[in-house]
């Protein structure tokens, strides 16, 4: 059960990052989505979604690896 919860916690931010990539790609091709009024704002929102999604997933993996002592010495807790 805990593994399913952990997978869900990782999948939701990953989907947010994928949505961010899609919004940025659509901006390059000139496709504007309904709730966003301009292409530049759409790109910024996509970049924000991508950053938040990657930050969360990377932080989760880093925290797990630090707990299991699988990181370099400079990243170990002091």
How would you characterize the overall build of this protein?
InterPro entries: Uncharacterised_YqzF. Pfam families: DUF2627. Keywords: Membrane, Transmembrane, Transmembrane helix. The chain crosses the membrane at residues 39-63. This is DUF2627 domain-containing protein. The protein is an all-alpha fold. It has one domain (2-71). Helices cover 72% and strands 0% of the residues. The protein is built from two helices and no strands. It has helices at 2-28, 39-67. Helix 1 packs antiparallel against helix 2. The longest helix has 29 residues, at 39-67. It is elongated. The model has no long low-confidence stretch (mean pLDDT 94).
Brief overview:
Keywords: Membrane, Transmembrane, Transmembrane helix. With 78 residues, the protein is mostly helical.
Shape, per Cα inertia axes: elongated
Strand content: under 5%
Low-confidence parts lasting 5 or more residues at pLDDT below 50? none
Share in helix: over 70%
SSE pattern, N- to C-terminal: HH
**Pairing-aware structural class of the strands and helices?**
mainly alpha
Report the oligomer.
single chain
What's the number of structural domains?
1
Largest sheet, in brief, is:
none
Q: Figure out the total of helices.
A: 2
State Rg.
17 Å
